[in-house]
From TrEMBL:
PANTHER family assigned to the protein according to its UniProt record, in alphabetical order: HISTIDINE AMMONIA-LYASE (PTHR10362)
EC number, as in UniProt: 4.3.1.3
An MF annotation (GO) of this entry: phenylalanine ammonia-lyase activity
Entry protein name: Histidine ammonia-lyase
Classification lineage: Bacteria, Bacillati, Actinomycetota, Actinomycetes, Kitasatosporales
Species whose genome carries this gene: Streptomyces tardus
Length: 524
């Protein structure tokens, strides 16, 4: 874990880059004096309210449907401990370390805003736990995406109390109390409002949204590259990528995708041969409409990023402490804004995968590939080539289509009908993470097929005879880099799974984009 970079948490929100630095890069966290002063001022409002006889939700009452009970001062510390313990009710597999770190960091961001009423020492302990590389054990199931990601955040709060289990920086899961003691961190003793303030936010779904946005941005560029390689291998025309054509339908994502493809195809001697062997007036939709589909996904991603930026600037809690000292109940914890875009991104990811699979299938079909051998096999019949690689890709696409069914349209009432409409945003985020992984593999299979097709094209010529033009310089760079990364080339049948795994690693690690950009310069 790289502990060199530092993220300063103030009172005015954080950026997506900050989230990625902490969640994935292990960045250290520093708390600004401004944040600590603001937190201290808000805490004084809470302490004043706690001393009054009138009940205040979360300060001197129970929670949810139990908010009707007034809690006497001597029971309030127990009340705050109890909400953490009782709400830490997750089940199922452990959630990924990067998700938990994002979840904790975003909760830290909210309590640093001065709107939650916690003491500064709670803030400091949260930062110390993250900086020590201690990661609470959080489970897959437990959040309905309303009243915040309650169970996941409760498991994180348990670690602050020195209870439950957590993963140490060495990757071993141990009692949280032991890990805190080893790092010289004193467990938190919760006071009024603090237990509730640690639980009541959209931090889990937001963290996963931020990471998905980063991953999908890279995947859209990768998909533009593989679409261009497939167009080239199919002898398609690059004229449909001309900027003036996309200017007449001014969707920004579409223009970006078309420009990316045009850069990758620059200098190709293969494009435009669609009239040679079996004349075509137009290329198939999966080739010709690649910028329109990928571009729509890009525009969806831009909208999702805007929602994420707004949420990153928010302070999500209930009740909230306002600047004038009022403590007001609200519904800002409802995850609908985040849940909707998480679902929208899953739809866009499924469609991007679907069009990529159609191009792969076209490359393998001798009746539609314009001179390429069946299934890109060396000796078709004896060899099966990439036949089953496309099966795997099709299975992934089918899974992505199932994952595109929205979670946010579902709602299961909870808390004795007090919380009678929920967002299911956590579930939307979890399935989007699965969809992003699936899309990565789909793009990897298209890369594998297109790279082999380009090698075969260079051997036998554009229309199946010698003398065709050369592969584009960017295409050649991608093929060479893929081979250097362990992605096998053309030849007889062999064990395909290692080749596909190497292709996936090449895409996931950024090697595909880096190889293309070594020739094209930066792509959008």
């Amino acid at each position: 874990m790289d502990m060199q970079s530092t993220v300063v948490v103030g009172s005015d929100g954080v950026t997506a880059e900050d989230v990625l630095a902490v969640a994935r890069g292990g960045a250290r966290i520093e708390l600004s004096e401004q944040a600590l002063e603001r937190v201290g001022a808000a805490r004084r409002f809470i302490e004043d309210l706690a001393a009054r006889p009138e009940p205040v939700y979360g300060v001197s009452t129970g929670f949810g449907a139990l908010a009707v009970r007034h809690i006497s001062p001597e029971l309030r510390a127990r009340l705050q401990r109890n909400i953490v313990r009782s709400h830490a009710a997750g089940m199922g597999p452990r959630v990924e370390r990067e998700v938990v770190r994002a979840l904790m960091f975003l909760r830290l961001k909210t309590v640093a805003s001065g709107h939650t009423g916690v003491r500064p020492e709670v803030l400091r302990t949260m930062a110390e736990v993250l900086n020590a590389g201690i990661t609470p054990v959080v489970h897959e199931y437990g959040s309905l995406g309303c009243s915040g990601d309650l169970a996941p955040l409760s498991h994180c709060a348990m670690t602050l109390l020195g209870e439950g289990d957590a993963e140490g920086p060495d990757g071993r899961v141990r009692p949280a109390g032991e890990l805190l003691a080893e790092h010289g961190i004193a467990p938190v003793e919760l006071r009024e409002k603090e237990g509730l303030a640690l639980l009541n936010g959209t931090d889990g779904m937001l963290g996963m949204l931020v990471m998905a946005c980063a991953d999908l941005a890279a995947l859209h560029t990768a998909a533009d590259i593989t679409a261009a390689l497939s167009l080239e291998a199919l002898l398609g025309t690059e004229r449909v990528l001309a900027p003036e054509l996309h200017a007449v339908r001014p969707h920004p994502g579409q223009a970006t995708s078309a420009a990316n493809m045009l850069k990758v195809l620059a200098g190709s001697g293969l494009t435009g041969h669609h009239q040679d062997d079996a004349p075509r007036v137009q290329d198939a939709y999966s080739v010709r409409c690649a910028p329109q589909v990928a571009g729509a996904g890009r525009d969806t991603l831009a909208h999702a990023r805007q929602v994420a930026e707004r949420e990153l600037a928010a302070s999500v809690d209930n009740p909230v402490v306002l600047a004038d000292g009022r403590v007001e109940s609200n519904g800002n914890f409802h995850g609908a804004p985040v849940a909707y875009v998480l679902d929208f991104l899953a739809i866009a990811a499924a469609d991007l995968a679907s069009i990529a699979e159609r191009r792969t299938d076209r490359l393998l079909d001798r009746n539609r590939s314009h001179g390429l051998p069946p299934f890109l096999a060396q000796d078709a019949g004896v060899d099966s080539g990439l036949m089953i690689a496309q099966y795997t890709q099709a299975a992934l696409v089918s899974e992505l289509k199932r994952l595109a069914a929205p979670a946010s349209v579902d709602s299961i009432p909870s808390s004795a009908m007090q919380e009678d409409h929920v967002s299911m945003g956590w579930s939307a985020a979890r399935k989007l993470r699965t969809a992003v992984d699936g899309l990565t593999r789909v793009v990897a299979v298209e890369l594998y097929a297109a790279a082999r097709a380009l090698e075969l094209r260079a051997e036998v010529g554009a229309g199946g005879s010698a003398g065709a033009g050369a592969v584009s310089p960017a295409g050649r760079a991608v093929v060479d880099a893929a081979r250097a990364a362990g992605v096998g080339g053309a030849g007889g049948d062999r064990f395909l799974a290692p080749d596909l795994a190497a292709a996936e690693a090449f895409v996931r690690g950024g090697g595909l984009v880096a190889a293309a950009e070594s020739v094209t310069g930066p792509l959008g």
